[in-house]
Prior knowledge:
Blueprint: H1 12-21, H2 30-53, E1 60-67, E2 73-82, E3 88-98
Antiparallel strand pairs: 1-2, 2-3
Amino acid sequence: xxxxxxxxxxxxxxKESFTYLCDYAISISRNTASSDILKLHKRKKTKxxxxxxETPGRICLTSDLWTSIxxxxxxxxxxxxxxKAWNLQKRVLSFSFMPPHIMVFH
Length: 106
């Protein structure tokens, strides 16, 4: 969101702010933050795979392309499906930066 490095958790000002807000806050290293993020991603990915495998019907994929105010391009791939309880669901499968392309006209 703010493009901060994982070492952000090791900044003295941040540690002091967390301690001020919560006396029993535990400081972590950037390696711990990275490991925790990867573990969370793996759990969420596994849960999503299970959900999609249990889907009784078809899955519709949609993509969306757009450009930010700074002219950076992005693409998002979304899955839409009806779950076992007949509730319409949608999940983002991928969100990526998309480098600019050059249009060539002949």
